[in-house]
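Consortium newsletter contribution from the modelling node. Members have asked for a concrete example of what our holo predictions look like. Here is one, prepared for the adenosine monophosphate complex that several groups have been discussing at recent meetings.
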Amino acid sequence: MSSQPTNRVFSGVQPSGQLHLGNYLGAIRNWVALQDGYECIYCLVDMHAITVWQEPAALKKATFEGAAALIAAGIDPETSILFNQSQVAAHAELAWIFSCVARIGWMDRMTQFKDKAGKNKQRASVGLYTYPALMAADILAYKATHVPVGEDQKQHLELTRDIAEKFNHDYDADIFPITEPLIQEEGARIMSLRDGTAKMSKSDPSDLSRINLTDDADTIARKIRKARTDAEDLPSEPAGLEGRAEARNLVDIMAALNGTSQEVVLRDFGGKGFADFKQSLSDVAVAKLSPITEKMAALAEDETYLQTVLDNGAERAAAIAAPVIAEVKALTGFVTPG
Ligand code: AMP
Ligand code: TRP
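And here is the predicted structure:
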């Protein structure tokens, strides 16, 4: 039987555009921290990206850039495994089996599908609908025990647990772990700079809505200056952020960047206007992000290096997934090589 790890992390990010501050604060900075103490596997999920149309050349570029961003942010590709999903066939194989385990009713409850498909769901791809089965396969092909993500992925991780339990039950095997989500308190849900009720996202048509990890210092400062706010001063306690989505978002960003809390930020800035606060926020954002941006730009030049990292990561990932897939196929009753 394949072994049962106790401290294996898996997480993924879609190479469907530029990585932004939401990705960094909600997920990636935690991926970096987890390298101390966990065996980490990080994936550029290109197969998830094509659930909505991607220009082939742009997808390829975003995959290399994503790898550069993760390394620049502090993922060490020697100790952690860093690769792109489509290079390891286990993901697609297990996703098919899981799409036969998961029930249509389960998929129907997924809010991300409803958001992404919009009003005309008849025109959405079938892949967008079955997306969570592929995500469960990503995680369980490695029997990952912990999955660091932002708040928006919580429901998909609950589905992953349901799939693991149903597979274990149906095939009377104790093969898959019940995965723990790791969601940080501060930064788990960073909102658009233009609309405090919408998530900061790669697909927002307005570039002013997000801070990209490739933005230079001037661009970061300009976007923060233009960020939407209200007319009042900052409150001195978190309760005063009630009903002020934009103000709360900027306070959350400051807290997450500094590794503190809303309380601490408001102790310093309560009673001050947004002009002062935005100036300080942009200084902090530039100080934290510019070392990453610079390193990323240098790495992105070296496609040969990035290609080697991804190839090597895929080889190591495939070696971990192979015995799991073999065990799943045997349990399922497929005839396997004799
Ligand atoms: P995606 O860009 O959808 O592939 O997301 C990659 C990771 O970043 C996932 O763990 C998401 O939960 C996280 N993430 C994406 N957008 C945000 C956001 N606005 N705030 C916090 N985390 C986010
Ligand atoms: N669905 C995730 C997102 O859009 C990305 C993802 C794909 C993922 N597979 C994963 C995250 C496995 C964690 C684990 O953000």
